Structures
1.
Amino acid sequence: MLPTYSPKLPGLNISVGSFLPRILLPSSEELELAPIDMVEPGALAVCIYNPAPVNPFPLPPPGLDYPARLAMLDARGVGIYVISGLPLPKLASWRELVGLEIPYLSDEKGAFAVEVGIPIKQVDERNFRTHAAFVLHEDRVLAILLETDLAHNFEGLLAALDVAEGREPGRYELPDKPTY
C-alpha cells in the first residue's frame, strides 16, 4: 500500500506540506515540549498520532518484533515519537508494556487535536475515528498514513520514507512474522 498524499483527508486540518502546530504538551521528558522538539534539526521523523485516550498502537501480537522494526527506522536515521490522548502515567505504562523507549507527548486535554483534527477513516460511506502516522521533516508533513504504526501498514510507512528520501519504494523484508 502506497502512502496517502491527499491534499485534504477527512477530519484533519493539516495536509501534506503543512506544519504541525507548535503547541506545548506534557512529555515523557517531564517537560512541556512541542512536536518540533521531538526531532533532531534537519531530520526525518515519524509521529504516530492517536487522539483517543487509548494505547497509541497495540501491544505486539505473537511474532511481532517492535525492537527490530525500530532498528529499521534507526538504520535510516529516522526518529519516532507518539502524540496520544492518554494522560502521561498511562502513556508511561503503555511504553513499559510494549518495551520500547519511544518518546511521547500527551494530548490529554485535546489542544493538539483541536488544531490538527481527528483522522477519519471512511468505510462503506460511514465515518470512523482512527489514528495516523505523519512522516515529517522536522515538523513539516511529508506524508499522512491512516491506521499506520509499527504494527499496522509498516511496509507503507517504509515506502513513504523512501519517497521522502527521494527513492523509489521497494520490497521490504521485515525482521518478523506476526500472527494475528
2.
Amino acid sequence: MVFCSKRFWFKKTKFVLDSHYNELNPIIEALNIKNKKQRITYIYDKACEQIDDYYQNKNICGFKNNKCYVQQKLNNKAINGCCRICLYQSSKGCTTKNLTCKLFTCSEVEKRCKVITFDDLKILNLLSFRNRMILKSDYFSKREDVINDLYIGSMFIWCIKIIVRMINTIYVLKRKKIEEK
C-alpha cells in the first residue's frame, strides 16, 4: 500500500485511518500529501521530531563541560563530541536539523543506553529505497541540502555532493588547526 500510494492513480485518493493506533497518524498524513517535496519535508521533519521527543531531557552522550563520555575518558582537548568536525556546529550547538546526525551514536553511548535507530522510525519507510540509502549517510549537512538530495534522488549527484562536503570539511578543519596555533 505504501509503495503504491506514490502511483498516479492514487493522486486523488485520501487515506483514512480507522483505528485508534496513533502511531500511524503521521504515516497517513504523509500519504495524503501529494506534492513530492512537501511529502519528503514532512517525513523528514516528523522523523526529527520523533527523535527529539525520544531523547528529550536525556544526556545520552554524557556531556560535561562540552566533553562527551569518550572525550572525558581520553582527557584530550577535543570538545563537542562527534559534532566537533561539523561545519554547522556552534557554541550553542547544532545550527541545522540533520536527521542522519541525530541518529548517529558512538559505541560508548550504545553500551550505556537504548538508542533509537533508523529502523525504529516507521515513517521513513515511506521514502524510496534509494532515498533511505541517501539519508543513512548524509552527515554534516544542512536540513535543506538533505531534503534537496532526497527530492532529486540521484545517487550520482548525491555522491558528488558528499565529496564536495568532505573536501569543505577537511578545509575547515585544517583552517581551525592553523588558527589554534
3.
Amino acid sequence: MIRLVAPLTIAFGALTLLTALAAMMVAVPFAMVTMITGFCWYAERPRTPRRTGLCGGCRAGCVECRERIETAG
C-alpha cells in the first residue's frame, strides 16, 4: 500500500494539471469573447452628452438643441 502513494500522487497531480489545462482552454476563450463583446457594445452604443440636464449638442440634433440654435440665431 505504501508503494502506491508516490505513483498515485504523481498520477493525481498530472490529472489535476490536465484538468486545469482543459478548463483554461475553454474558459479563456469565453472570457475573451465576453470582454470583447462588452467593449464593442460599450463603444457602439449611442450616448447623448448631458450638460445641466440638456443635450450637449449631438449630430442628430435633438429637439432641445434645435430650439437653442433657433432662439440664438
4.
Amino acid sequence: MGVRTKREPRGSHRPQQRQLVYRGRAFHFVSYDGQPENLKKGVPASGPAWYLMNSGTRWEVMPFSPLQDEIEVDQQLLDWVKRTIN
C-alpha cells in the first residue's frame, strides 16, 4: 500500500469574481485569500484582497471582506479604476 499523507487544512475563502466596464473597457477582479509570511522570500503576510487581473498579472486593489455588499464592492472597485486607470 502507498503512504498516506495528511492534507493541509483548506481555507474557507471562496474566490469571487467581478466584471466591471468603465469607458468601454472591461475590468476583471478576483478575490484571493491571504497568504502567510514567507521568510525565505522576504514576503510579508497578507490578508484577503481583491485583485485586478490583466494579461496573466494581478494587482492588489483593496481588502476583501465576505460580509461586504456586492453593490458596495462594485462601487469601490469602480472608484479604484477611476483613480488608477487613465
